[in-house]
Amino acid sequence: MKVMKFGGTSVGSPERMKNVASLVTESGEPTFVVLSAMSGTTNSLVEISDYLYKKNPEGANEVINNLERKYMQHAEELYSTDEMKQTTKEFLAGEFDYLRSFTKDLFTSFEEKSIVAQGEIMSTNMVVNYLKEQGVKAVLLNALDFMRTDKNAEPDPQYIKEKLQAILAATPESQIYITQGFICRNAYGEIDNLLRGGSDYTASLIGAAIPAEEIQIWTDIDGMHNNDPRVVEKTEAIRQLNFEEAAELAYFGAKILHPTCVQPAKYAGIPVRLKNTMAPAAEGTIIDNVLVRGKIKAVAAKDNITAIKIKSSRMLLATGFLRKVFEIFESYQTPIDMIATSEVGVSMSIDNSTHLNDIVNELKKYGTVTVDTDMCIICVVGDLDWSNLGFETLATEAMKSIPVRMISYGGSNYNISFLIKEADKQRALQNLSNVLFT
Ligand code: ADP
Ligand code: ASP
Ligand code: MG
Known about the structure:
It catalyses: L-aspartate + ATP = 4-phospho-L-aspartate + ADP. By secondary structure, the chain is of the alpha/beta class. The chain has helices spanning 14-26, 41-53, 57-78, 82-101, 109-116, 118-133, 157-170, 199-209, 243-251, 262-268, 321-331, 356-363, 391-398, 425-437, and strands spanning 2-6, 31-35, 138-140, 176-180, 183-185, 191-193, 214-219, 240-242, 272-276, 285-288, 296-311, 338-341, 345-350, 368-382, 404-409, 415-421. The chain folds into two domains: 1-218, Carbamate kinase; 294-435, VC0802-like (2-Layer Sandwich).
């Protein structure tokens, strides 16, 4: 069986949904389909929740009404029979009534999770109804019955595997299974999710649980490009990436892949293929265990980074100084992305600045602290094993006109990272493309 995951744009219009239906039926092979919400829907559902937190039911109702109009129109265009139009519109009306029911009560994060879950519930029902109308036997599986996180809010692969395999065994023989990406239950059985963009993660977890032969992520671009296509001109699709390279790129900002998605596939040894729904014939990118030696593959950028430097004469020849510093970050559950040390100081970067003030106040006990905000990590990814000559020189050469706050190299065999001002990002990415890929 293969897993095919379609993102928001890929199910974003009646035409695109029809396209998904033909892509999943085309091969004739058993297929497990994971769908995102229609593009824009999760944002609207978050907007509704924000209005309700702010005790503004009128604002929430307006977004709900607009969304309902859009969905009803979509159903009108998607189906050809009056019967299926009617069935789907009744289902959607129930969904929007459910959303409206939250405008009357006390609002907590539990209600918010229930609201944002409805986007995937609607898209999967709509596609299944379309397949049924086309005479295709497709089975809709409810992700809330088998996707689960544990007490640390991490997916529970053992539970997912057991549940999913039991469900598949008990489900009538089918070629096509469809389920929702993103949504799950938490350790207490409540509705929860795998964070924004998390449908890729669902696909990978399901692929590992089945286990599938291949996990395909279908989106609106023909694979992983060698630089951010939203920022840089003339980027090109990369044919192949190693799991580690893909993980670095996803973590450092290549939005095509959710950062968490690589891990389950990697551990299960299942290749991940990135494909373009708008151009299915394009080769896309295959992510697997193969490492092509001596090549820089791609560049990515991660925004909203804060750099923190602590300078202390106490660090000189002292043991335990770094431990104290790290413990402060740990106690505020703030991961460190980059780090550089010198004899008397250490610089670190974080992307979650929720507890910045508390962290800085505690660090001040140990030395002088400097903070730089609006920074950006530029990550150059490929076979950067230290025995390869010249690659780090090439990357730094490309950055020669950009002020660099920090460099990290040698943490893994796969990347060299630069911390720069966000304002210099476009120029840095373009320079790197010019030097590394032309
Ligand atoms: P989906 O809704 O299908 O999950 P996303 O919007 O999450 O799609 O991801 C696809 C988008 O990722 C592309 O449209 C592209 O603009 C963006 N992107 C950012 N960096 C890269 C990259 N290096 N290669 C390909 N796409 C990238
Ligand atoms: N619909 C969710 C989001 O927009 C999950 C996803 O599409 O991956 O974040
Ligand atoms: Mg995505």
